[in-house]
């Protein structure tokens, strides 16, 4: 991947068209990160509640502080990466390669059930924070590579589509592997054979299954096996640089960036809420505890196969028009909440995959356009790419952390109790709101803000022509200066 996706100075990419091999090499690099991230998104909350027996309040602290630590790492990573020197493999690749082995270790111990009980919250908080911080050190330089692959907008959009296809495929592999391996940890014969006995009195009963908080229990072992399986793929000019603080202030004042970030901040929070609570919803609110792993796979298969469709759609109809696909999941999710049904659940999973694919592809396809627009307005600055990408990831992670923290705290407030067959009506109502109403409101607000996003297909073409003219004039100036120096000598 280093050879095909090396980050070289922008001028050296002039006139170079990316081959399919180069796009694939770039795209494959993001898959391992998504394999691990998807497993954590779908299963970490239910693992903390039902396997580690951490209270919902403490689980909310782990999820929020972990996401917040990753978010805080984003601008810090952007600062140090922007100060990095160019090496034989570029300025960004050393960061990607250096953090990988430490990410593997932190991910493995994030799923380890320690033999002690009193310090488990601190244990999971420590390793989840490490995992989030290390994945940030991987994600910021890797995503910023997009701007160094080519100066052609169509090439970058195509490379982004390749990347998102591989990342969604990685998400599918992670969720499918994790779901199939740990499914037996959440199936209780006591809950399935005698459902009529699950009255309100059972809320305070102790479960008849073995204690999952025992490190030697079957539930703990299968999660450790899943962690080991999923951690394995990781081992696979005259311009002047803008000072980081000044560049950060400029990005926060750049209108297109502010609108794009605010819009997808809300949309990504909605998707995170869906992912983080979907398994809990299927297990406790929809009576689908034996099907949740297959529903998760259905969502992600739909997302994988629809990424090429969305790429063609946005090329023909424009990126803002493609954003309407994100809203497709809203009516069907509301139907599932109100009418829990197995066939409907699979249909909802399929449509949700279409919407999730659009929500993943669009921001990373639109962000390079924002960077180009900024470059046009600040033609004599460089080194701003990592500032845009790191600050964007910061805001999305922070919003996701707040959303997941509030959802887990809501379960604590309504009386969620781990290890029982049937939760209280308040808990079930909370899960329904977290899957239906709350994501719907966030998505609609995000799409409303996106209506004011000023970059259209026409303005993209104008920006492309203007930047090409700037590069040509810059190159001719450099040639003239070089000729004057040779003449004087």
Describe the protein in words.
α4 runs antiparallel to α5 (120-144). Residues 10-15, 192-210, 235-240 and 477-489 have low confidence and may be disordered. It contains 19 helices and 2 strands. By secondary structure, it is an all-alpha fold.
**What kind of oligomer do you see?**
single chain
- Overall, the morphology is globular
Low-confidence stretches: 10-15, 192-210, 235-240, 477-489
Could you spell the SSE succession in H and E letters? HHHHHHHHHEHHHHHHEHHHH
Approximate strand percentage: under 5%
Short descriptors:
two-stranded parallel ribbon; 1% strand; disordered C terminus; mainly alpha; 489 residues
What is the structure about, briefly put?
With about 500 residues, the protein is mainly α. It has 19 helices and two strands.
Describe the secondary structure blueprint for this structure:
Blueprint: H1 20-28, H2 31-51, H3 56-82, H4 93-110, H5 120-144, H6 146-149, H7 153-182, H8 189-193, H9 218-231, E1 240-241, H10 244-253, H11 255-284, H12 292-317, H13 319-322, H14 329-338, H15 342-377, E2 381-382, H16 385-414, H17 425-435, H18 437-450, H19 457-488
Parallel strand pairs: 1-2
């Amino acid at each position: 991947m280093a050879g095909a996706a090396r980050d070289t100075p922008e001028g050296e990419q002039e006139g170079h068209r990316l081959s399919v091999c180069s796009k694939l090499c770039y795209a494959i690099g993001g898959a391992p990160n998504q394999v691990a991230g998807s497993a954590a998104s779908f299963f970490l909350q239910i693992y903390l509640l039902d396997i580690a027996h951490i209270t919902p309040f403490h689980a909310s602290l782990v999820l929020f502080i972990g996401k917040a630590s990753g978010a805080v790492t984003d601008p810090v990573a952007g600062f140090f990466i922007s100060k990095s020197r160019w090496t034989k493999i570029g300025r960004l690749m050393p960061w990607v390669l250096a953090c990988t082995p430490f990410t593997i270790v932190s991910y493995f111990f994030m799923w380890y059930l320690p033999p002690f009980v009193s310090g488990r919250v601190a244990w999971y908080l420590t390793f989840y924070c490490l995992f989030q911080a290390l994945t940030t050190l991987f994600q910021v330089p890797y995503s910023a590579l997009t701007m160094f692959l080519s100066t052609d907008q169509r090439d970058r959009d195509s490379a982004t589509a390749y990347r998102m296809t591989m990342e969604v495929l990685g998400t599918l592999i992670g969720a499918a592997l994790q779901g199939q391996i740990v499914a037996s940890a959440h199936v209780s014969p006591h809950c399935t054979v005698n459902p009529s006995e699950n009255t309100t009195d059972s809320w305070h009963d102790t479960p008849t299954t073995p204690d999952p908080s025992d490190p030697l229990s079957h539930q703990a072992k299968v999660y450790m096996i899943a962690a080991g399986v999923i951690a394995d793929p990781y081992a696979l000019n005259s311009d002047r640089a803008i000072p980081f603080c000044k560049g950060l202030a400029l990005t926060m004042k750049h209108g297109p960036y502010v609108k794009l970030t605010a819009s997808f901040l809300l949309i990504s929070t909605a998707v995170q809420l869906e992912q983080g609570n979907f398994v809990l919803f299927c297990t406790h609110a929809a009576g689908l505890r034996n099907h949740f792993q297959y529903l998760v796979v259905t969502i992600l298969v739909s997302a994988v196969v629809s990424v090429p469709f969305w790429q063609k759609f946005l090329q023909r109809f424009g990126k803002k028009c493609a954003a309407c696909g994100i809203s497709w999941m809203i009516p069907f999710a509301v139907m599932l909440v109100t009418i829990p049904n197995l066939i409907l659940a699979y249909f909802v999973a399929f449509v949700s995959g279409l919407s999730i694919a659009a929500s993943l592809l669009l921001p990373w396809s639109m962000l390079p356009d924002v960077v180009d627009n900024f470059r046009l307005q600040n033609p004599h600055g460089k080194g701003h790419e990592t500032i845009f990408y790191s600050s964007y990831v910061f805001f999305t992670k922070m919003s996701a952390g707040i959303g997941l923290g509030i959802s887990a705290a809501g379960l604590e407030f309504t009386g969620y109790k781990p290890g029982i067959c049937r939760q209280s009506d308040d808990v079930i109502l909370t899960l329904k709101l977290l899957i239906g109403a709350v994501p719907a409101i966030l998505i609609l607000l995000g799409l409303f803000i996106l209506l004011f996003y000023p970059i259209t297909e026409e303005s993209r073409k104008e920006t492309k022509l203007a930047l090409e003219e700037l590069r040509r004039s810059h190159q001719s100036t450099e040639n003239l200066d070089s000729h004057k120096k040779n003449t004087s000598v």
